Known about the structure:
Layout: E1 6-12, H1 16-27, E2 32-35, E3 47-49, E4 56-58, H2 69-78, E5 82-84, E6 90-95, E7 98-102, E8 112-114, H3 119-126, E9 134-135, E10 142-145, E11 151-155, E12 158-167, H4 171-177, H5 186-194, E13 202-209, H6 213-216, E14 219-225, E15 232-235, E16 244-251, H7 259-271, E17 280-285, E18 320-322, H8 335-351
Helix pairs in contact: 1-3, 1-8, 4-5
Amino acid sequence: MSHRDSRDVVVVGAGASGLAAATALHAAGRDTVCLEARDRIGGRLLSASTSNPDRALDLGATWFWDGEERVRDLAARSGIKTFDQHLAGDTLLQDTTGTHRLAGNLIDAPSRRFATGSQSLVSALATALPTDTLRLNTPVTAIHPDGRDGLDVHTPDGTLHAEHVILAVPPALALERIDFGDALPADLVHLARSTPVWMGAVAKVVAQCPFAFWRERGLAGAAFSRTGPLQEIHDMSGPGGRPAALFGFAHARTVRPGFDKAVTAQLAQIFGPAAATPDVLHVQNWSAERWTSPSTVQRLADYSLFGHPLYQRPALDGRLHWASTETATEHAGHIEGALASGERAALAVLAAPSGANDPSISVTTAGR
């Protein structure tokens, strides 16, 4: 194998966790490559552009909260403007008897959002990497110990050798898409296959509207429904209400022919005729994303497995590291959890006894 096919670290996945790990390792002087199966970066951080180049609508992760310092610091360092989630107004409840108005916002909690969309966070991380470090359209098909001093990472384009590999994808997806042979211990295989994928069984629907008409009626844009298809709805308008938008979550299994019409009919029933004809309707079915969700995603429901101790310990003689929001011990399921898990994996690589690691190096890419 030629020298150019060998790396200190291979990171699998260019979402928030993978890019946090890759940028930290690159900053620490480790020869790192980040492999991404999709033709884009970001994973579950996905934002749809609008007619305003400074505004975007999130089709995946949306919020961050007080105490999530990694996200806050990354946005501040990158010059990404954030703003408060709209909270003012009343909540609407839809049930079999109709729509009912309830005093105050009973759904949303104080949080912040990104004016240019959450995907701008990963774009900021990626700019810190050399152009040859990030490889798109490069799915990993197998990872095997090489029997000597590292791991072989197989892709359709060839094989890379690495001292360490960071799996920055949902564990259940990794076990379904990547062949590990018989190298992984049985308890780890069972855990990974059983761990839910955050957002994996959900469809997120974003309706962009001409203006935030619900606010004029004293409504928060917050609603919950016992009849569906959207089970909960939130205001997704940008700063100052522009662009105006509502978004809701639906079970992915309800996305079938006629789903779009059912959604707009529901919005009209809840918010009135003005909601019947949004300017744009985005439907992001995360269960249909082959590089996010395994085929078993709708059967995985034990969220107590998030942050499991086995994910905190490198496998394969300390060379295989877990990094995704599902593996985080804090803020699992949030962007903060993804950044924290990428930071943890990078620190584990830097602290490993092999290679020229310097324990005095600190990881700052993810806000620490």
